[in-house]
Design brief:
35% helix, NAD binding, 2 domains, alpha/beta, Rossmann fold, five-stranded parallel beta sheet, D-2-hydroxyacid_DH, oxidoreductase activity, acting on the CH-OH group of donors, NAD or NADP as acceptor, 343 residues, D-isomer_DH_NAD-bd, NAD, elongated
Length: 343
C-alpha cells in the first residue's frame, strides 16, 4: 500500500510517518511532502478552502498512492479524478474543508477526519482567554512591560470579576465545551449549557445544567461560544442576544467567527453593555486593516491559535494513523465523513 503523507509546519510529516509505522510496521511505501503553513497562510485552491500546496504538486506526489494523509493538501475534483489508485484520504483536522467530499464520493474515495484532536488545547485556551478578559491580565501586562505600575487596578471600578459563584453560559457542548464545563464547575461556577443536540445526562455529569439560549444569556456573567458553524448557527449571537446579557458581562469566542456579529460586539464594548470580551476567531481572518476590533475597549485578541500545541499535532497524527490501520486491516473505520463511499 503506497501512502502519500503531506505535512506542514504544525502536523509534521515525520510525526505522521512515525505514527503510521507504529500502527502498520516499518515496511511502508511512504512519500512525503511538506508545506510551509503556518509561515505561509492557507488559501482557497479551486473549489476547496484552507489548503496549502497546488493541485499539480499533489497529483505528481500522489501518483500510485492508495492513501493520502494530510491536514491541508487540496483534494479537489481535479486531484481526485487524476489519482486513479486513491481509495482513502485521512484529514488530520475536524472539518475537511480542503477536500471536495462530493467528488470523493463520486470517485469511491473514503474521506476520514480527526475529530477531537485539539479539544484539550482549545478548552484550555478558551479558559485562558476567559480569565484574561475577566481579570484584565493583558492590560496589566502591557502597562507593566511599558514601565507603568498601575495600582489603580485595585480601585473598585477597575476590578475584575471571579468565576467562583458566577453563572457561566456555554453555547455548545461538544468535545471542547464539555471539557470547559468540567473546569468551570471545579472553579465553583454555576454552568448553564445551551446545545439542542445534547441530552441532559452528559451536561449534569460535567457539573452543568441545560438551559434555553435566552435564559443562558440573561443569567450568565460570562458567555463562551463552542458551537459548530452551520446555516442555523451563523450569526446566532447579535445585538439582540448581547442586549439580553447582564450589563458588564463577558463574551468569549474561540469557536467560529461566523457565530458572532462583530459590529454588535464592538457596539456593546463601547457602550459598556459588555465589560470585556475575548476572541480567537473572526469572520475574516486576519481581520482587515482598520477593523473596529483593534480599537474596541476591553477586548482581548489572539490570531486563531487555540489548538496550537505540540500535543495537538501528535494527537492528530495518531488519530489519522489509527484510521489508516483500521482501513488496512479491513476493520470498521471510526471517523468516516462520507459513509456512502465505504464498500
Amino acid at each position: 500500500m503506497k501512502i502519500l503523507v503531506a505535512g506542514d509546519r504544525h502536523v509534521l510529516s515525520r510525526l505522521m510517518v512515525q505514527a503510521l509505522k507504529k500502527e502498520l510496521g516499518d515496511s511502508l511505501d511512504v512519500t512525503t511532502i511538506d508545506f510551509d503553513w503556518p509561515m505561509e497562510p492557507h488559501v482557497d485552491v479551486a473549489e476547496v478552502r484552507e489548503a496549502a500546496g497546488g493541485e499539480e504538486e499533489i497529483v505528481a506526489a500522489g501518483r500510485g498512492a492508495e492513501v493520502i494523509v494530510t491536514q491541508l493538501a487540496p483534494i479537489t475534483r481535479k486531484v481526485l479524478n487524476s489519482l486513479q489508485d486513491l481509495k482513502l484520504v485521512v484529514v488530520t483536522r475536524g472539518g475537511p474543508v480542503n477536500v471536495n467530499v462530493e467528488a470523493a464520493t463520486e470517485n469511491g474515495v473514503i474521506i476520514a477526519n480527526a475529530p477531537g484532536r485539539n479539544a484539550p488545547a482549545a478548552a484550555e485556551y478558551a479558559l485562558g482567554l476567559m480569565l484574561a478578559a475577566m481579570k484584565r491580565i493583558p492590560d496589566a501586562h502591557a502597562s507593566l512591560k511599558g514601565g507603568e505600575w498601575r495600582g489603580e487596578f485595585y480601585a473598585y471600578e477597575e476590578n475584575g470579576i471571579e468565576l467562583d459563584g458566577s453563572t457561566v453560559g456555554l453555547v455548545g457542548f461538544g468535545a471542547i465545551g464539555s471539557r470547559v464545563a468540567k473546569v468551570l464547575a471545579a472553579f465553583g461556577a454555576e454552568v448553564l449549557v445551551h446545545d439542542p443536540f445534547v441530552e441532559d445526562g452528559p451536561v449534569v455529569k460535567a457539573g452543568g445544567r441545560k438551559a434555553g439560549l435566552d435564559e443562558l444569556l440573561e443569567r450568565s456573567k460570562v458567555v463562551s461560544l463552542h458551537a459548530r458553524l452551520s446555516d442555523e448557527t451563523r450569526g446566532m449571537i447579535g445585538a439582540e442576544q448581547i442586549g439580553k446579557m447582564p450589563e458588564g458581562s463577558v463574551l468569549v469566542n474561540t469557536a467560529r467567527g461566523g457565530l458572532l456579529d462583530y459590529d454588535a460586539l464592538c457596539d456593546a464594548l463601547e457602550s459598556g453593555q459588555l465589560g470585556a470580551a475575548a476572541l480567537d476567531v473572526y469572520e475574516e481572518e486576519p481581520p482587515p486593516e482598520g477593523s473596529r476590533l483593534f480599537a474596541a475597549p476591553n477586548l482581548v485578541l489572539s490570531p486563531h491559535i487555540a489548538g496550537a500545541t505540540r500535543e495537538t499535532a501528535h494527537r492528530a497524527a495518531d488519530i489519522a494513523a489509527a484510521e489508516v490501520g483500521r482501513y488496512a486491516r479491513g476493520e470498521k473505520m471510526e471517523n468516516v465523513v462520507n459513509g456512502e463511499a465505504v464498500g
